[in-house]
Amino acid sequence: MTDALSQAWTQLQTEGDRLRATHLRQFFAEDAERAQRLALEAEGLYLDFSKEKLDATALQALVALAEAASVEEKREQLFSGAEINVTEGRAVQHMALRAPPGTEIRIGGSDVMPAVLETRRRFLAFAEQVRDGSYAASERQPFTDVINIGIGGSDLGPVMAVRALAPDADGPRLHFVSNVDGAHLTDVLRPLDPARTLIIIASKTFTTQETMRNAVSARDWLRAALGAGADRHMAAVSTNLEGTADFGIAQERVFGFWDWVGGRYSLWSAIGLPLAIAIGAKNFEAFLAGGSAMDRHFRSAPLAANLPVLLALIGIWRRNILGYPAVALIPYDQRLERFPAYIQQLDMESNGKSRTLDGRPVTRATGPLIFGEPGTNAQHSFFQLVHQGSDVIPVDFIAAVEPREQLADHHRLLLANCLAQSQALAFGRSEAEVRAEMQAAGKDPAEIDRLAPHRVFPGDRPSTTLLQERLDPFALGRLVALFEHKVFVQGVIWDVNSYDQWGVELGKVLAKALIPVLEGSAEGAGLDGSTAALAARIRAG
Ligand code: F6P
User: Fold this and answer.
1) Which residue among 31, 85, 193, 446 is least packed, with the fewest CB closer than 10 Å?
2) Whose CA is nearest to atom 6 of ligand 1?
3) What percent of the chain has a predicted confidence (pLDDT) above 70?
4) Phi, psi at residue 144, to the nearest 5°?
């Protein structure tokens, strides 16, 4: 670590020691301008972080940390196609997938944009053909249903985005199968007619156990009904063109991408085909444009006025200075119901690391646990703990000012709840206030003594609120890219490789070895006692 970097961390600790005990009530009482000082409006987004336990001086120290960690230089390396995924020897260039025609983006000396644009043209054309029926089902009728089979980055992005953009969806119905649990495929297939169903097999590697198992069963389902006609009902998205050919998918319905696109960053590629089929090429291009606008902002805005950088620094403050282990991500937007799950993979698979880039153990906490549900539902499940539990869990709220439907009074109620939650978290309700309220309500003193402690809200629980105008394709693209770049900045500061995922490998290998044990064709010699006993119990039925 450079001297400048260690000094920046020391300074940040000093700021933390100065502010840790200050209640959010006091922050607001002491600074009438706080809400303006600790907010940023940029790119059509309004980020209010005045309910975080920091002040302008702490913010400066955070920006100094980003500078000392060379965020600007590393950002240039990212955009210039350097091999920053060092453990896999790859560049990271998902930004090329959303770049407009006319851009030149080089990886290893050659411009990748001609291939990107050609693949984009092909998969968007295919999406339009499926939508308008010019690519029709075997009985010359348009496809009514499309199933995407994939998992992780080959599922979470498309399913999240298709739900988020439901008002824009006017194509065939979209379904998603990810879990290898046969229940998932069975339940999705049951109401569908194979003669009117198109199946997209989405897998970067085309080797993922779960996806390949589901793909084979889905192909059997098509073949049982359609015989040789089944082939027409299958398309694939993958970097493994040999694998797709071996599976029997005609080349013209295979859409590729590249090893410099991580699975969890691939929604912008042909992995977005289900979204394009749902909302059409024009809307998909607006989604790409939103992501691209955020790229330009991230690359050019000064650190202190840079949305992804600020989000990242707020996260660093929460995690490394105040020591909070988790974050609740709560969209007050039903259509973002899968957004927390999507961000879980993006963030936790990227920054859930405990080795630095050069392989040493990290010396600071890295990626937090992220969980979430849409508001207001979350209020009626785990918010009890968030308000009064023994751990402080900072919250990221996301809301749109304008609804996409006519029920304006619903939307006001939704937004009132969003603001109320951040208010309650920050300011709470003191025992004196609780007692005064109960007295005013005519409660007897014994009951007040008994119940008042339970009704106290400690407050001082931080949250950030992100407002956008409305959730449309452009806004969704911008939002996803915002979180991608936030994850990048945190990865730089923690000095981890945000683009590998070795932590998911061991389980895959062990599962493979256990299949024969569960089938009864292998003994499982050398298994630990617990696993052997569980396997024996399962085999016994
Ligand atoms: O879970 C690990 C992982 O490799 C993810 O990173 C990826 O998104 C997912 O599996 C699916 O991989 P593939 O697209 O190759 O099937």
Assistant:
1) 446
2) 263
3) 100
4) -95, -25
Q: Is 411 a catalytic residue?
A: no
E strands, 281-325, in order: none
* Unique residue bearing structure tokens 């029709």: 136
Residues near ligand 1 (Cβ within 6 A): 151-154, 203-205, 208, 211, 263-264, 349, 501, 504
Q: Which residue of the set 104, 252, 282, 380 is catalytic? A: 380
* N-to-C CA span, the chain: 56
The per-residue pLDDT of the chain, averaged, comes to 97
Cβ proximity of 308 and 491 under 8 Å: no
State the average pLDDT over residues 327-332.
Answer: 98
Q: Is 123 exposed, middle or buried (0-12, 13-18, 19+ CB in 10 A)?
A: buried
Residue 182 contacts by C-beta under 8 Å, 6 or more apart in sequence?
217
The yes-or-no verdict on residue 140 having pLDDT over 90 is no
pLDDT at 2: 87
DSSP letters along 182-230, please? HHHHHHHHTT--GGGEEEEEE-SSS--HHHHHHHHHHHHHHHHHHGGGG
The closest of 480, 498, 479 to 488, measured between CA atoms, is 498
Query: How far is the centre of ligand 1, averaged over its atoms, from the C-alpha of 351 (Å)?
Result: 16
> What does the pLDDT read at residue 524?
83
Give pLDDT, residue 203.
Answer: 98
| pLDDT at 512 > cutoff 90 | yes
Is the separation of the CB atoms in 249 and 235 below 8 Å? yes
CA distance 509 to 449: 59
